[in-house]
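Narrative summary of target 7.
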Amino acid sequence: MRILHFFITKIFLKRWILVFGMILLLFLANYLSFSATRSIISTVQGYQEIETFNQEGNYIANLDPDSEADFARIEIEDTRKIYEDLNKNYTYALQADGFTTSLENEHDMEVSFNYINDEAYQLNQFKLAQGDHLSFDYQFQKDEIPVLIGGGLASTYPVGSKIEIADPVTQQVVDLKVQGILEKNTHRSNFYAPNSKNYYNFSIFVPVNEQFIQSAGLDLHLNGLMDIVLLGSTKEEAMKLTEQIQNELGLDFNFFNQQENFEYFEEYYISSLKMISAITLVLLVVIICLATWNTLISVRLMIKDFTVNLLVGLSYSKLRTIFYSYFAILFSINLVILFAITAFNRYGFWMRKDSIFATYGLFGLISMDWIAFLGVLLIDVIIGLMIVELTLKKIKGIPISVGVLK
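Modeled conformation, tokenized:
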């Protein structure tokens, strides 16, 4: 330990400003690597989840971002006509998320009501921790509505619980019965940005049938149209619906298949990844050069002390161990800081009561976080190997003899 302390204080930290700068650069490189790796994992997950929608004949709606939408002029009778035509002439998947309401739970989170029809439910294939899957065969205002709830609500509302609440989209008091509980961290990836996810730990899934849709208000009608998926359709039929929506609602809608959505996403996503990768690579090269140069300069400045240690038994194998120990300490400090920031961000969603992003996991971290940490650790190990071996190779080239002690 004494020799390690000597090297850290007298050689490695001889120029502490350079060391501090290297630590900052290393942290930035680690942070970029972590963010990019986690984003890639999230994107791959999103592609796998959405792949069920990526079938020939499926067309996904979205409001044209360049259009000027006047929602104030839209009447409920107009949207009902659209849904009547959808029910007669199309097979479609509907899922509308994010209608928040207050419902007592142990975490005091706002609860999100999510509405889903049978076709969308079959495509999403949600996994349950307990209970049974949804049933869509019920009479609105007459029967209890079977619902699924997120894992965060399970302790407050176990399977079989009854919930009486004013429904956010019908504005009517409804009786809900908890049919099943979703697995914790169940989520949905965005059609247009597969790396983006909404988590359903504090959600209630309400099954939607034709009767429910006709009883619902304008908010559900419009939000349902925004991401509606035509199933087993054709481009001509999708264009016909586009024209009808334009005529009835004055809204400009696009209908693309999921492959087109993927291609649009990849245009900007891949270019962003390339930029992040290039910046990270430059930072890592700078770190290797800076760390090697700083260590060599420090060794030259402390050449007498260094020579004494070599003469009293310090071998190059022990020197290698010292170097690896030092850089392991530096890299560990960076990883601990990165871990703390990530855990704090995850915990922050709970503190802010942001139910859409609140997740469960060890220290608040989920699987993609841990995999990204392993990726960063692997990069650090490779960088550490390069720095140490390059430095030792250069040190062996320094002429060291008893003459330097005079």
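Residues 401-406 have pLDDT under 50 and may be disordered.
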